[in-house]
Automatic annotation (TrEMBL), chain A:
It comes from the Bacteria. Keywords: Membrane, Transmembrane, Transmembrane helix. This is Uncharacterized protein. It comes from candidate division GN15 bacterium. The chain crosses the membrane at residues 7-24, 36-59, 71-91, 111-136, 148-168, 188-210.
TrEMBL record, chain B:
The keyword Membrane applies. It comes from candidate division GN15 bacterium. Pfam families: DUF6754. InterPro entries: DUF6754. Residues 30-54 are annotated as: Disordered. Residues 1-21 form the signal peptide. The keyword Membrane applies. Residues 240-494 form the DUF6754 domain. Keywords: Membrane, Signal, Transmembrane, Transmembrane helix. This is DUF6754 domain-containing protein. The chain crosses the membrane at residues 252-269, 468-488.
Automatic annotation (TrEMBL), chain C:
It comes from candidate division GN15 bacterium. Keywords: Membrane, Transmembrane, Transmembrane helix. This is Uncharacterized protein. The chain crosses the membrane at residues 263-281. It comes from the Bacteria.
Length: 220, 499, 291
C-alpha cells in the first residue's frame, strides 16, 4: 500500500510547491527550488542514464549470447559504445595513454573530435536528410485536389514552395502571399490549437498533481 | 595575515599604476590652441531609488528626470553614471574572498600538476638525470605537505568571512563615514532609469546585500569625463525580497478559476451526472490493433517520443502505454518499447510492470520489454526504423513528443506494412503523422486519451472543465478584440502578466 | 494498369531517385536565387545592427549536427555580425551535441574575423576575438528547461565554469553580468522543443528580448509568438538563413544551398501535378464507365 501511495504523495508535494514557487520570488522559495529542481533533477538524470546504458548493454549482450536473429548489429552497437567511451576518458600523451577524469580533456582529444566530426555529424545529417525524400514522396501522395478543402491545402503548399522562384514578378508575389498565409490563416489555426493544448496541459498537470490521473503509474 | 598584507600592497601598486596610466591618457593641450570649453551640464533632478518590486531582493531601481542638457540645452550630456556609497568593509570582504578563490585555484592547479610531476620523476630517473628528478621529487613532497593543510586553511577562512558578512548592515549604517562613492552602472543619454542589481551569492564580486542602507547619486557626464554634475543624494533605501509577485496576479486568478471548474465538474461527475464526450477513432483503434497483432503473431511497437518524463505529452503517453500493456498482457502478445530518455525508460518499466500485475500476469513481465537506445535523435530513429524493418511489427503506436523524426518513423512504418496510431502535441508534426498514419490524435486529444480509455467520471469531468475554459477564452478574446479596437486598452492591461 | 493509374501510384523509389539526381545536378549549377527579405528576419538584423559596442548578445546553440544545414549558417552570420560590430557574445548549447557545433563555429568565425572585410559598404578591419573578453561559451548542461530557468536567476547557478573549465567569475565579460537582465537579447537557434522552453521558462518568466532561428518545418509554429510580441524575430529554415546572410552581406552556405532547395521544390511541384493529372483523369474515366 505504501509503495503505491508514496509516489503520489511526492508528486503532490513537489507539484504544489512548483505552482506556489511561480508566484513567490522570495529567496527562501528560490533556495528550495534551486536545491530540489536544479540540483536534484540532473543528479537523478545522470543515475538514470547509467541505468539506461546498463539496460542497453544487457539487451544487446543477451542477443549476442543467445545468437538471436540479427545479433551482429548488437556487436556493432557495443563496439561503438565502448570505443567512444574509451576516447572520452583516455588521452594519448606522448607515448602512452592517460586516463582523464573530471576534466574535459577527453572531449577535446584528437580521436574523440574525429569520431564526432567524421562519424557522428555525417551520420546524423544523413538520417535527417532522409526527411527530404520522405517529404517529397508524402506530398506526392497527399496533395490531391479531391475536394474544396484539399484544393485549398494544395494551393497553399504550392504558394509556399514557389515563394523564392527566380521568375520575375512571380517570386515576389508568391513571397508576399506566403507571408500573408503564415501570418493570418496559419496563425489563427495555430493559436486555436495552442490555446487548446495549453488548457489541456494545465488540466493534465493538475490531475497528476491532485492524484486524479494515475494512469502513468500503470493504474490505467 | 602575511598574505593579506601582500595582497594589500599589490592592490595599492595596481591603483598607482592605474592612476599613472590615466594621467598619461589625458591629452595635453598644446599652447595657444585651447579647445572650446564644455560648460558643466545641469544636474538630473527628481532622482528616486526604490527596492525593485516582485523580486528576491538584491536589486534597487533608480529613476530620474533627464538633465535639461540631455539632447537639448547645451547638448552636452553623453552618459549618466550611477554611484552608490560603498563602505570599505565591502572591499575588504571581497579581498578576503579573493584570497580564498586564489587558494582554491592553487588547489586545483596542484591537483592537475601532481600526476605530471610524478611522471616526470619516473621519466628523469629512467633517463639518468638524477638532479632534475630530485628537484621534481622535492616539489611533489612540498605540494603534498601543503595540500594536506590547505583544505583546512580554506575552510577556516571561509567560515570567518561568512561570520563577518553579518556586519554588513552596520557598516552601511555608518554613512557617510568609512566608505566611498563607487560607480555601479552607466546609461546612455536619453535613458532616465537604471536597475542596480547584484548577486545574492556573497562570494561574488558584485554581491548586493539585502537589508542594508544604500545611498545613490547620478552624475550627468559630458564628452570630457571630468566635466560632470552630480545630482542630489538619495537614500537610505534597502533591497528586500518579496513573498508574492504582484505582476503574476492574472495567472493566479486564471489558474484558481480553472482549478475550481475542474473540481466542480469532477464532483458533478461523481454524483452521477451524465457527461457526453465525442468518440475518438484513434483511441478506439488501439484495442482493435492489439487484437490484430495477436492474430498475426507479431509484436507491437510502442514509441514514447523524444520528450522527458516531465512533458505532459509523455505523461499522457504513459497512460496509453498502461492500457496497451494491460491488453498485451491479457492477449500474451509481444511488446517492444525502445526509449530515448533514461528516466522515461525507468517510468515506462514501472508502468508496464504495474499493468501486467493488474492484468493478473506479473510473471509474463520481462525487463527487456523496455530498453534505452540513445539520447541522440537520429541515432534513435535509425534504431527504431531498424526494429520496424527487421521485426515487422503488426502495430506501431507513436504517442508523446515528436520532432523532425515523425515522418521518418511513420513512413518507414508504412513501408513495413504496420497499422499505425499516433498522437502528439507538437503541432508541426501533426500533418506528417496525418499523412503517414492510420489514426492520429491531435494535440489535446492525446491528453484526453486517459479519460477516454478509463471512462472514469472523474477524468471525464476534467475534460468538461477544459471545454468551459476554452469557451471563456474565446469570449475574452472576442471582447478583447472589440475593446482594443474601441481604444479601451485598460481591458487588455487587466490580463498582462509581468515577470 | 493504364498510364493515368500509374501516374497516381508511382513507386516512391522513383521519387527518391529523381530527387537525389536533381539535388546533385543543382549543386553543380551556378545560378543565383533571388532572396527577398521578410520582416521577421529584418527585425533581428535591425535589432543587432543598432546595438552599441560592448552590449551583450546571448546566442543559444540548441541544435544537433543533423540540423546544421539550416541552422549553422545562421550562427555563422550572426556571430560574425556581432564580432564585427564589437558586440560581446555569450553562447550556450542546450542540445546534447550542440557544444560541438558551437565550438566549430567559434573557431571558424574567430578566424574569419581576423581578415579585413567590407560588409554593406562598411569596411571592418581584421581583429582578434578573445575568449572570456569578447565571447564566453558556457557549454552544455542537460535538462534545458531547468537550465533556462536557472540562468534567469544567475548564469552561475547552472554554469559555475565555462565550457573550457574556467570559473566564469574570472572572465572579464561576465563581470556584472548576472542573468538575462544584462543581455540585450537572446537568440535561440533551435531544432526541437527547446524553443518552447525559451518562451515558457525564459521569456515568459524573465521577460527578455527573444528571437528564434528555427528549422523550416518548425518555423510556421512560432508565428503566433511573433504577433503577440513574445519574440521579436524568426529566421526559418535555409531560406531564413539565406535572408540573414543577404542582410549581413556575408554570403555563406545558406545562399549557396538555395539553388538545391529551389529545384527540389520544383520537382516536388512536378510530382504533385503528375499525381493530380492521374487523379483527375482516372476519376473522369470512372465517371464515364459509371455512365
Amino acid at each position: 500500500m505504501h509503495k503505491r501511495q508514496l509516489p503520489f504523495i511526492l508528486v503532490f508535494i513537489f507539484g504544489a510547491f512548483m505552482a506556489v514557487q511561480y508566484f513567490m520570488p522570495h529567496e527562501s522559495s528560490e533556495f528550495i527550488y534551486e536545491f530540489f529542481a536544479l540540483d536534484w533533477v540532473p543528479i537523478i538524470g545522470i543515475f538514470a542514464l547509467a541505468l539506461g546504458i546498463w539496460s542497453l548493454i544487457k539487451v544487446s549482450w543477451d542477443k549476442i549470447k543467445h545468437r538471436r536473429q540479427d545479433w551482429q548489429y548488437s556487436v556493432v552497437l557495443l563496439a561503438g559504445l565502448f570505443t567512444i567511451i574509451f576516447f572520452g576518458f583516455f588521452v594519448k600523451v606522448g607515448e602512452h595513454w592517460e586516463f582523464r577524469f573530471m576534466t574535459s580533456d577527453g572531449l577535446q582529444s584528437y580521436m574523440f573530435r574525429h569520431l564526432f566530426d567524421y562519424i557522428v555529424i555525417p551520420g546524423q545529417a544523413t538520417v535527417f536528410s532522409l526527411l527530404a525524400f520522405y517529404i517529397a514522396s508524402a506530398s506526392y501522395r497527399a496533395f490531391r485536389a479531391r475536394n474544396l478543402l484539399a484544393t485549398l491545402l494544395l494551393s497553399a503548399a504550392l504558394i509556399m514552395m514557389l515563394r523564392f522562384s527566380p521568375i520575375p514578378g512571380l517570386g515576389e508575389y508568391m513571397s508576399k502571399t506566403a507571408t500573408w498565409l503564415l501570418n493570418v490563416p496559419n496563425l489563427a489555426a495555430k493559436r486555436a490549437i495552442i490555446i487548446g493544448i495549453g488548457l489541456g496541459m494545465v488540466a493534465t498537470a493538475m490531475k497528476v498533481v491532485l492524484g486524479i490521473e494515475r494512469g502513468y503509474m500503470g493504474k490505467g | 595575515m602575511i598574505r593579506n598584507v601582500i595582497y594589500g600592497i599589490l592592490l595599492a601598486l595596481m591603483s598607482v599604476c592605474l592612476a599613472l596610466a590615466q594621467t598619461d591618457a589625458v591629452p595635453q593641450d598644446s599652447a595657444g590652441t585651447a579647445p572650446a570649453a564644455i560648460s558643466p551640464p545641469q544636474p538630473v533632478t527628481g532622482l528616486t531609488a526604490k527596492d525593485t518590486p516582485d523580486d528576491h531582493g538584491h536589486s534597487i531601481t533608480l529613476k530620474w528626470t533627464l538633465s535639461p542638457d540631455d539632447q537639448g540645452g547645451a547638448h552636452s550630456v553623453r552618459t549618466y553614471e550611477v554611484f552608490r556609497w560603498v563602505p570599505f568593509f565591502m572591499d575588504s570582504m571581497h579581498a578576503r574572498q579573493y584570497s580564498v578563490d586564489s587558494l582554491m585555484g592553487l588547489q586545483t592547479l596542484w591537483r592537475r600538476y601532481l600526476p605530471f610531476a610524478k611522471d616526470s620523476i619516473k621519466y628523469f630517473e629512467k633517463s639518468g638525470n638524477a638532479e632534475t628528478a630530485r628537484r621534481f621529487a622535492d616539489t611533489v613532497a612540498y605540494i603534498e605537505k601543503r595540500t594536506s593543510t590547505l583544505r583546512g586553511e580554506i575552510k577556516s577562512l571561509q567560515r570567518g568571512i561568512e561570520n563577518d558578512w553579518e556586519r554588513a548592515p552596520q557598516a552601511h549604517a555608518q554613512y557617510p563615514n568609512g566608505g566611498e562613492w563607487q560607480m555601479v552602472g552607466q546609461t546612455f543619454a536619453g535613458q532616465g532609469n537604471y536597475v542596480n542589481s547584484g548577486q545574492k551569492d556573497n562570494t561574488a564580486s558584485d554581491y548586493l546585500p539585502n537589508g542594508c542602507n544604500f545611498y545613490y547619486r547620478v552624475d550627468a557626464v559630458t564628452a570630457d569625463p571630468k566635466i560632470r554634475t552630480s545630482s542630489e543624494i538619495v537614500g537610505p533605501v534597502q533591497a528586500t525580497g518579496q513573498w508574492y509577485n504582484v505582476g503574476r496576479t492574472p495567472s493566479l486568478f486564471a489558474t484558481g478559476i480553472f482549478v475550481l471548474l475542474v473540481l466542480l465538474f469532477v464532483r458533478a461527475a461523481r454524483k452521477g451526472k451524465e457527461l457526453y464526450v465525442r468518440p475518438l477513432a484513434g483511441i478506439e483503434a488501439v484495442d482493435e490493433a492489439i487484437g490484430r497483432a495477436t492474430e498475426m503473431g507479431k509484436p507491437i511497437l510502442y514509441v514514447l517520443g523524444l520528450g522527458t518524463a516531465a512533458d505532459i505529452a509523455t505523461i499522457a503517453s504513459f497512460t496509453v502505454l498502461a492500457r496497451v500493456a494491460k491488453r498485451v498482457a491479457e492477449y500474451q502478445t509481444e511488446l517492444i518499447v525502445p526509449t530515448y530518455d533514461p528516466i522515461v525508460m525507468s517510468v515506462a518499466q514501472e508502468t508496464i510492470k504495474s499493468a501486467y500485475a493488474d492484468a493478473g500476469r506479473p510473471d509474463s513481465y520481462r525487463e527487456e520489454i523496455v530498453f534505452f537506445v540513445t539520447q541522440n535523435q537520429f541515432a534513435y530513429v535509425s534504431a527504431v526504423n531498424g526494429i520496424m524493418l527487421r521485426q515487422h511489427p503488426a502495430t506501431n503506436v507513436y504517442m508523446g513528443k515528436f520532432f523532425a523524426e515523425s515522418l521518418i518513423l511513420a513512413e518507414t512504418g508504412a513501408l513495413a506494412g504496420s497499422i499505425q496510431i499516433s498522437g502528439t502535441d507538437e503541432i508541426a508534426q501533426i500533418p506528417f503523422f496525418v499523412v503517414a498514419c492510420d489514426y492520429t490524435l491531435i494535440g489535446e486529444e492525446l491528453y484526453a486519451a486517459s479519460a477516454y480509455l478509463g471512462r472514469e467520471p472523474v477524468l471525464l469531468g476534467s475534460l468538461k472543465a477544459q471545454d468551459y475554459a476554452k469557451a471563456a477564452v474565446i469570449i475574452l478574446a472576442i471582447l478583447g478584440a472589440i475593446a482594443v479596437n474601441f481604444g479601451w486598452t485598460e481591458f487588455r492591461e487587466i490580463f498582462r502578466v509581468v515577470r | 494498369m493504364d498510364m493515368f493509374a500509374k501516374m497516381m501510384a508511382l513507386d516512391r523509389r522513383w521519387v527518391f531517385l529523381t530527387l537525389a539526381i536533381v539535388c546533385v545536378v543543382a549543386y553543380g549549377l551556378t545560378f543565383e536565387v533571388p532572396i527577398l527579405i521578410n520582416d521577421e528576419v529584418q527585425s533581428i538584423y535591425n535589432f543587432i545592427d543598432t546595438l552599441k559596442p560592448g552590449q551583450i548578445v546571448f546566442i543559444a546553440v540548441d541544435y544537433d549536427p543533423s540540423n546544421q544545414a539550416e541552422l549553422q549558417p545562421m550562427l555563422y552570420a550572426l556571430m560574425e555580425q556581432c564580432f564585427r560590430k564589437d558586440l560581446k557574445v555569450i553562447i550556450t548549447a542546450l542540445s546534447q551535441n550542440g557544444p560541438g557545433m558551437a565550438d566549430q563555429a567559434i573557431r571558424d568565425v574567430s578566424d574569419s574575423v581576423k581578415l579585413d572585410r567590407t560588409y554593406n559598404g562598411v569596411n571592418y578591419p581584421g581583429r582578434t576575438v578573445e575568449r572570456g573578453k569578447d565571447y564566453v561559451f558556457l557549454g552544455y548542461k542537460p535538462y534545458p528547461s531547468l537550465i533556462i530557468l536557472g540562468m534567469g536567476q544567475n548564469f552561475r547557478i547552472p554554469f559555475p565554469t565555462d565550457y573550457y573549465g574556467t570559473p566564469i567569475d574570472s572572465l572579464p565579460l561576465m563581470k556584472g553580468v548576472i542573468n538575462y537582465d544584462q543581455v540585450a537579447c537572446v537568440i535561440s537557434l533551435a531544432a526541437g522543443n527547446i524553443a518552447d522552453m525559451w518562451i515558457a521558462d525564459g521569456q515568459g518568466r524573465y521577460n527578455f528580448k527573444l528571437a528564434f532561428g528555427l528549422t523550416g518545418v518548425m518555423g510556421a509554429d512560432y508565428y503566433p509568438y511573433l504577433s503577440s510580441k513574445q519574440i521579436f524575430g524568426i529566421m526559418a529554415g535555409q531560406y531564413g538563413a539565406a535572408q540573414y546572410e543577404k542582410l549581413t552581406d556575408n554570403k555563406g552556405m545558406a545562399q549557396d544551398g538555395m539553388r538545391i532547395q529551389l529545384l527540389a521544390h520544383w520537382l516536388i511541384i512536378l510530382f504533385i501535378i503528375i499525381g493530380n493529372i492521374g487523379f483527375f483523369a482516372s476519376r473522369r474515366k470512372l465517371k464515364e464507365q459509371g455512365k
